[in-house]
């Protein structure tokens, strides 16, 4: 067996995923993600998805939906129209743990000026997790950018935050997963559409969350 094939098989066993254009919904660690979504009448495509690991433990599946497929962080942040990150929990986790990880991800990938600009929205974002005692295995979060409205977060289909209006803040959220210091380096590459067989190093995580 050649090295590239071995890497591909190892990636599939690990539950990572890449979706080719036109492919049907895919199973990632037992979670089925649709290849398309619709936000405010706009059709989105699944750009890529995979598993967030903490050490050896699977934490959640995350998928990135965009109007058009993009393969770099800069292009994702610049793409016009609606966007979505879908997160499905693979284990129970406290609101404090998840909220701390998300907030750390924002701070790790935002400069001082950005953090000062978003302070009010950061406070409201933190309040979201205070309102949810615990996330259970199978719970689904969607983090949407809706043009003309703002960032909307839903838990199992129920909205849990008022709109957060600044596109810059939504981009700060995206950087949790696709920024320079992502929560999981392999997950970043998969969300940006890379094939598992093209990722030739072991899954890596930063020290946040």
Automatic annotation (TrEMBL):
Gene3D superfamilies: 3.50.70.10. GO terms for molecular function: intramolecular lyase activity. InterPro entries: Chalcone_isomerase, Chalcone_isomerase_3-sand, Chalcone_isomerase_sf. Keywords: Lipoprotein, Membrane, Signal, Transmembrane. Residues 1-24 form the signal peptide. Residues 27-193 form the Chalcone isomerase domain. This is Lipoprotein transmembrane. It comes from Noviherbaspirillum galbum.
